[in-house]
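protien #1 (seq + structre)
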Amino acid sequence: MNDIEVRFSPSTAQDAGSFRLIELPPELCQLIESAVGTPSRLQSTVLCIKGHPTEDAVLCTTDKTYSLRSVLLSNTVLVGTPARTDPEGTINIRDQIHEVLELAPSVPKLHKLPVLLRGMEYDEGDEDRRATLPTYSYEQARCEIQSSEMEFQQGLKDKRILVLNGFLRPIAPGHLSTILELILSYLVSLSLSHQAADVEELVSALVDEHDVPRPVSLQIMSWFGPVKDGLWEMDANAVVAEIGLGILRHYKYEAISESDFLVKWTHAVGDTFEGLVALELLSGNYLRTISTHTTTKATLNYFPASGLPTDPTARFVELFLSQQRWKSEEIQPFLSDIAVNSKERDKLLLKHARAITTPEGTWYTSRVGYNN
């Protein structure tokens, strides 16, 4: 074996701090290795680090987001490269590394979107106010929002954000409910199957009779089911749930009796779809209170998980201030947007809540006392 001389590089001072050591999780390591071995996949494999100077950076692939965390090493790692003048016999030390960057799966940081898009809502009569609205482009959001491309696209759907002329416009909840109710009505009046509805027929009816622009109705339909070969397979449960949310939003501060709410909801979706109405469709969006002091058995308040803090500690404070005890199936939907998976969700529950098992099932209470 030939001797190899190790020496400091002449450019050590300039190279200092130029190298980073990243520990890859198995799935990301496999992705990179498979891409390196396949030139066609290498071009489509995207790794991007995103983050404002005031934010913790994240690494994004095409479909996942990873948090970056710096961990100090007990031993210094030297970065060396073969010397240009003697690549076979000399290694130049280019840098010294004292920390490693760890990657961990993370939820996409989509909570900023509603704040960034405040005042840009798309509503009925939008043409009269378009020129005075602030703007935020799709491309600008892609660069600034800490999420993968797939998660970003899904986030736009989940948060009901339209892309019109290259700009993001969250649709007004009331206007969305109106359009969905019109769609359900046209499905019945035009004798269309909600499992294979003719897209052109529905879109034309909305344009001709209600001045709903084609790009708006097409995007809304895509939020609630796939469109293929000119036919729309409507997710009936999702549409019924969105209409229910549109009604429930009016009762954030003043409660409505559960029975009255169900009557309003059933009336809004019509006879054809009334069999789908069920409170379970709105999990993670309401508080249900049972009173022993009035004749009303149960009341509902609008209480969306999307309006709660994204910090886990603050999230649990809000939950337990709003309700002292939570059934397992009730609290879980309020944690889905801050936990990557059920395992991480259970860790949060173990850290912030105390489980109590009763004949009625598992209940969760706070580990600390709150005055509510």
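ok now protien #2
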Amino acid sequence: MRPILMKGHERPLTFLKYNRDGDLLFSCAKDHTPTVWSPTTATASAPTAGTTARFDAPARSVDFAIGDHLAVITTDSFMGNMPTAQVKRIAEDLQDQTDESALVISGITGRINRAVWGPGNRTIITAGEDATIRIWDSETGKLLKESGMEEGHQKAISSLSKSADWSHFLTAMGCKNTDPDKDICHGATVNAVDISPTLDHVVIGGGQDAMNVTMTDRRAGKFEAKFFHKILQEEIGGVKGHFGPINALAFNPDGRSFSSGGEDGYVRLHHFDPEYFNIKM
């Protein structure tokens, strides 16, 4: 599986997302320059003018509802503003777009790293630094359920990915529990996860903290994407290449390739070999 290296950012990657057709890949980085890639030609361009929303704080993640007329966007705490998850209506005509939020979810302590829509757009699921997963009513903003420390994470949740049929989701944190009957373990801090849309596979990635990268050998830093069977929780294999922690992962919606984004500023596009689809566990 020979990767295609795509260099379009000057600073570490933070987020990767394919469109529903899988023919566009969007990347975000700390250089404040969103980039649109063609997975077919590996060429990049700046996003064209489109629907925008303005916030009083940095935006961290976005997820689109069924129908693409709503988006839930998380914002960080900044200059006295608390972290929020905000629902925005997406106008078909750019001239009709407003900054008004249809719903604002607040009152959470710590950064909200991810927010995604639940089945049928009826709920919103949030996860972040306080190690708690919460399910909210997407119409009223009422908190419906939240995980406790005894049944969930012990450390900050860095990533959340939902399955293609929206029946379940996967979360990630720095791997502390080594019990193979309970957790899929990377062996290092986990920054990103994603679920295959076609197979019972998941990919997780991370590595040693970015602040220690210059003192770490690439092999010891665990800067690789690891694949596991999500039911059996057995490791399938790994893909190396990044020279720093992996911060973002995304399967193409067709399940035939995936992309990774790292602290090194590179997006690596990987097309699976035919043998990958015939793996027997």
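Confidence is low (pLDDT under 50) at residues 176-182.
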